[in-house]
Amino acid sequence: MRIDLNALPTDVTALHEMIGALVAERETERAEAEAEIDRLRNLVKVLQRSQFGRRSERLDQDQFDLGLEDLDADVARAEAALPAVATEKALRDPATKERLSLPDHLEREDVTLDIEAETCPCCGGAIHQIGETVSEMLDYVPARLRVIRVRRPKYGCRACGKLHQAPAPERPIAKGFATAGLLAHVIVSKYCDHVPLYRQSQIFARQGVTLNRSTLANWVGGAAWWLEPLHARLAEQVFASPKLFADDTTVPVLDPGRGRTRTGRLWVYARDDRPWGGTDPPAAVYYYSPDRKAERPAAHLKGFKGVLQVDGYAGFEQLIARGTIALAACWAHTRRKFYDVHQATGSPIAEEALRHIGALYAIEQSIRGKTPEERQRVRNVRSRRLIDAMRPWLERQLRRVPARSGLAEAIRYALARWEALCRFLDDGRIELDTNTVERAIRPITLGRKNHLFAGSDGGADRWAVIATLITTAKLNDVEPYAYLADVLERLASGHPITRLDDLLPWNWRAAAASA
Q1: Contact call for residues 484 and 461 (beta carbons, < 8 A)
Q2: Which residue, 189, 200, 304, 366, shows the most beta carbons closer than 10 Å to its own?
Q3: Is 357 helix (H, G, I), strand (E, B) or coil?
């Protein structure tokens, strides 16, 4: 209803009727808006259920994220269309009152909005400031390219005729014009944000700078060359640890001779002692190999001594023969076998197995962050009882079910790895699963979807080198771009090879904090 304020009725009854009509119209609008918001929120819940429901009904993680973004935007638009409705709901729901807190480290730019009058508009008296209202908004300044011109004046000596000039600075790419900052941007965009080089070339073109894909590829290769010694040093420190996680994932690699791709492997070795209060910083090391032969992890781990927590890959079993490596298995992989059977057949035996494993995880949740000694003590009191009952129960069930059934396969999978599955009972540093290393594989999976494949074995090796530094930086709460830009600048400027430890992500953060 539109109202002409200059033609309001003077009759009180007519005014009451007009106000009543306005309230009714507003209530109708509010009800419709709330219904739309509820509908959209229910869609979000349906989408979330599809992500965590049956495997056959699950959405790909990227599809899930995109759908969720659109629905969240729809909810926000519905609330923005009726701000009064949103405000009233915020008053009813305390959780919605929380506002985004803008970080203190961001640059602040003050904009002052002042009144024009110097005297009181009401009485003409003098006015004076008694305070101010301050609000903040988050702004974005687009990235920009700039040209750094290096001027080196020349000086001549009138007495001897010699010329004097400051030496030219070292460049990260020989005869190239990319600074360390630009190289870091290209690397982080490709390997952290998963933007392929051809798309980056298009983005640069929109800014009026022609950088073709082959030029960017040459820069990535040159930058990776500087980073290889740092990758090797980080690997040395990781493999000196007493406990690691290990896993691998596929990497399509272009095979020009056959006109298609072949399947290589990226091996990941991760360290994360935070669940039991360890002091070693978290890290992840990646290696590429053209195949999945057992000799690959054997070569990577030739100097490792300790506990290696792995999935069900049989190649890791050969490491036991050395006598210096003990394998711990993954309860998450074991659980997945029973889960698949239960989802497919509704087997009560599989359901009971899932309950047993769930009880173990509930115990682990209660001791996360405790010392190894405390974790082991609790496991001896609570978890060992469950484990001791589970094995004979599984053996009994195996005799009851068809030998070729999926349930029998799941039971045999668990019993074949029983010693490794139970190793966590005697060592408080061991986790129940390999989720730590699987989280380190997730960025590779995203990159694989966006890059599609590595162009060569050398490209896959570079992927491993750069992924090692980026993932380890993120694990240590180090911003990858700032880290790589500074490290590339230092290495190109002659940083001593004997002081590579200063450039490892966890040491670099400490140095940056003290600077």
Answers
A1: no
A2: 304
A3: helix
pLDDT at 49: 59
- Alpha-carbon distance of 42 to 47, in angstroms, equals 9
CA distance 272 to 506: 13
Computed from CA positions of residues 497, 498, 502, 506, in that sequence, does the dihedral angle turn out positive or negative? positive
**What are the structure tokens assigned to 314, written together?**
């049989």
Q: Work out the angle between the directed axes of helices 457-475 and 213-239 (0-180°, nearest 10).
A: 60
Residues 472 and 400 sit within 8 Å (Cβ to Cβ): no
- Per the CB < 8 A criterion, the answer to whether 469 and 164 are in contact is no
Residue 464 backbone class (left: φ over 0; alpha: ψ -120 to 50; beta: rest)? alpha
Examine the pLDDT at 248 and tell me if it is beyond 70.
Answer: yes
> Do residues 450 and 195 lie in contact, with contact meaning Cβ atoms separated by under 8 Å?
yes
- Each residue of 196-241: pLDDT tens digit? 899 999 999 998 999 998 899 889 999 999 999 999 999 999 999 9
Tell me the mean pLDDT in the region 311-329: 90
Angle formed at CA 236 by CA 235 and CA 239, multiple of 5 degrees: 80
Residue 265, SS3? Answer: strand
Residues in the chain: 515
Q: 306-317 as b/e, with b when 16 or more CB fall inside 10 Å?
A: ebbbbbbeeebe
| pLDDT, the chain, mean | 86
pTM: 0.78
Res 96: pLDDT: 46
Q: Distance (Å, rounded) from C-alpha 386 to C-alpha 36?
A: 49
pLDDT given for residue 79 in this prediction: 60
Buried (b) or exposed (e) across 93-122, using 16+ Cβ within 10 A?
eeeeeeeeeeeeeeeeeeeeeeeeeeeeee
| Residue 426 CB contacts under 8 Å (≥ 6 apart), including other chains | 376
Distance of alpha carbon 380 from alpha carbon 389, whole angstroms = 14
Question: How far out from the chain centre does Cα 92 lie?
Answer: 34
CA distance 460 to 253: 7
